[in-house]
Every structure is written in structure tokens, then in C-alpha cells.
Amino acid sequence: MNIRPCAIIVADNKMLTLKYNYNNTEIFAIPGGNLEFGERLEEALVRELEEELSLKITVDELLFVCEVHKNDKDTLHCIFTSDILSGTPKLNAKETSALEFKWQPIETLNIVNLYPNIGIEIQNKLLKNIESEVFLGEISQPWY
After folding, report:
1. What's the N-to-C CA distance of the chain in angstroms?
2. Which domains, ranges and CATH numbers included, belong to the chain?
């Protein structure tokens, strides 16, 4: 099972995402990546955002943990709130296959193809301040 920490970074009611295109479908991923051997979650998340987006971040509260199961791959997503300490997002094509970064309005997270697919949960937490369990269990993730 892959373990993927990812960062919810918000500015002006928009969340930082990475845009991909799979089979002519736009996908917006929460920035993050997989652990390397011996890494802690927070270390991996800091490293991934520095490598992919040239950002130095803080890793704050663990908001959600969810499982995505696919035929040949299982992933455990650990979603943290994070803040930018320094830097401006800049895509590093050597470290990611993302096409661009996009500040996605939080209000639209339930209608875009988000990876992991937890747009409603993020909206409930950030816009409506609705508390939920941290562990969401297995989520339904469309694949394109």
C-alpha cells in the first residue's frame, strides 16, 4: 500500500491543486506524494512540495485519512492543513507530470475531479465548520 501525505493550502477561499489531464479529463490533485523509505509523513510532505512546487511549508493539523483501492494499487491518503512559509508556487516539470498548479475555489471542490475525491468533506470542514471523523475509510475515486 502506498502512503501519500498531501497538503491543503488555502488562500482567498481557494485551495492549491495540481492539474493533470487523463483521457481528456481534467483532474485536480491535492499536492503531495509518496513516502520514501524511512520518512515520516511530515518530512515527505515538506520534501514533495519543495520538489514539485518550490514551496517551503508548515505541516499542521491532520484533517482526514482515507483509503483508495484500485485493482493493482492501494493508497492511504493522509491530508494535512499546511501553510506556505516561503516561496511562490512554481511547477517543477522534472519532479511532477502535472500540467500546471491551480488555485481551485473551495466552493467548486464538489464538482471538479479531485484526487483524492474528498471535495465535499473539505467544503464541510473549511466552509461550514462541520466536524467529522478524521478517518473517512474507503472513498469512491473515479479513474479516467
Report:
1. 21
2. 2-138 (3.90.79.10)
Q: What is the 3-state secondary structure (H, E, C) of 68-80?
A: EEECCEEEEEEEE
Pick from 105, 95, 115: nearest CA to 29: 115
Sheet order of strands, 2-8 included: 2-8, 73-86, 56-70, 135-138
Q: Give the C-alpha separation, 6 to 78, whole Å.
A: 6
To the nearest whole percent, how much of the chain has pLDDT over 90?
Answer: 95
Please give the full DSSP string across 107-133, using - where no structure is assigned: GGTTTS-EESS-HHHHHHHHTS-----
> For residue 39, what is its C-alpha cell?
520518512
Residue 85 has pLDDT above 80, yes or no: yes
The pTM score is 0.95
Mean pLDDT of the chain: 96
Cell of 131: 466536524
Q: Give Cβ neighbours of residue 27 (< 8 Å, ≥ 6 apart).
A: 19, 20, 21, 113, 114, 115, 144
Summarised one tens digit per residue, pLDDT across range 9-27 is: 999 999 999 999 999 999 9
Helix (H) or strand (E) holding 104: strand 100-105
